[in-house]
Amino acid sequence: MKVKALSVVISLILATPLCANAQTDISAIEARLNALEQRATAAEARAAAAEQKAARLEQLINSNSLSKTDHVKTVGMEQRVAILEKQSDEAQAKVNIAQTQLNEIQQKQSAQLASTKNKEGTGFFSTNTNWGDLKLYGDVEYNIDAASKKGQLTSMRMMPGNQKDFDDNEKWSLNGRILIGVDGERELKNGNYAGFRAQPMADMTGKMNLDDAVFYFGQRDKWQYKIGRYEAYDMFPLNQDTFVEYSGNTANDLYGDGFGYIYMMKEGRGRSSDGGSMMVNTHYNDWYFELNALVEDGTSVFKDNEYHGRKLDNRKNVIYMRPVVAWQKDNLTIAGAIDANVINKAYGYDDENGKFQDQSRRTGYGLTVKWDTLANDPINGIVANLSAAYLDAKDENDFSIGSNVLWRKFQLGYIYAHNDIKTYYHKNGNSSGQNDTYLTLNPGKYNINTVFASYELPNILTMDNFKTYLGAYYSRIDGKDDINVNSSDKDRYGARIRFKYLF
């Protein structure tokens, strides 16, 4: 913990002079722009005055009121006119030079701004050297929550011998984190590039965590390879920030044994605390291809390392292979993916006869469709998502389908999930230790229905980088056929106020 904190402090100290230098460069450019504008204005004024004087003198020369005796004066006036015209031409030339210099500086400044905007977030400072660009930025996210006691719905946890406190007591909580991101990238004229991203986070409880930590390289708009900690393609997007507790944002603790499971193709997506990922992706016309590999302790997917009533024993790391194919045309995007563990006998348990029972077979399939007109019409545009996912696992099949629509900063969504659990093991109350015995049960099928909504409040304090979201959800589980769920365990609900500040 001390090492992490010291690293953050050292990074900020090193960043300070870079920030100062970047600010000095911007101030110098602004000063040059102001000086050139003043010179151009003064030159234009002198040219206009000279032209006016020349015009008045020409009028006097051509006037019939001039007599022949004034011939000498007329010659003098013509000489003055010639001098004034020459001065006017010189002033106009200076105006043209000043305007050219002004245009060149503005073009350079516009190019730098465009290059910065093409990256995620502008950052509060960005510096450019021969070794590439370096950017520092931040993301503050704090929540005020009110929710029922558990995020996941109880299906089998109330069986005799497995009693726990699952009453529907209300809970209030404050949570959140501050993220400080550092991005570095270098790109050559031929399109070759390499870069990194590090995003340490400090949460409200005083712990230090990490969002992304990734290194990547490739050729712009052609291919890319990345390795580290990150999230792959989202196959079940919930869109605008919402408060669906069991959605999960990493590959860990997604499956709570004995609870309803909303499968969203996240198990092999990445950001695991027990492993890392690598990916290769490419573009071809309207097509996008991605192959991600997550290597980790496979039992980390299961909370408390439990699956169907059994404690899992990890024998070797799993490898989740996750190919994604996406097609985008105008406002429409369609993507399909497979999320599968390709390592056999990675984890499981020893039965009463001492035989190892493999539980690591898990293969998921997903399809998602997106319609997005928000970029073309920021006021009345909509973002609509429709997603489906199916999991074929050992003694269990899960299916989920979800949709959500965002319009005028208000979003409404719905998720339906079906769990078909073929086998569940219940420990015999008279057994203990290595001599545990289990009863094999057939818990059956469950349906879960969830409705969620969110709304982004208008600009707070007229700051476009400060946003406030209101979110809520209601979820209910029901047993199918002869399966009954206790009424106290059927529903879950929650509400949230989220403060989001980007810099």
Primary descriptors:
three-stranded antiparallel β-sheet, Porin, 503 residues, coiled coil, disordered N terminus, elongated, 16-stranded antiparallel barrel, Carbohydrate porin, alpha+beta, 2 domains, Glycoporin_RafY, signal
Would you write up a description of this structure?
Residues 1-22 form the signal peptide. Residues 19-108 form a coiled coil. Pfam families: Porin_8. This protein is α+β, with helices and mostly antiparallel strands. The chain folds into two domains: 2-117; 143-502, Porin, CATH 2.40.160. Helices cover 21% and strands 44% of the residues. It has helices spanning 2-62, 71-117, and strands at 125-129, 132-148, 170-187, 192-203, 208-219, 223-229, 275-284, 287-296, 306-307, 310-311, 313-314, 318-329, 332-341, 347-350, 356-358, 362-372, 382-393, 396-407, 410-421, 424-427, 438-441, 444-456, 466-479, 491-502. The strands form four sheets. A 16-stranded antiparallel beta barrel has the order 2-3-4-5-6-7-8-12-13-16-17-18-19-22-23-24. A hairpin with a 3-residue loop joins β5 and β6 (223-229). α1 (2-62) packs antiparallel against α2 (71-117). The protein is elongated and about 125 Å long. It starts with a helix and ends with a strand. The model is unreliable at 1-26, 64-70, 110-121 and 157-166 (pLDDT under 50).
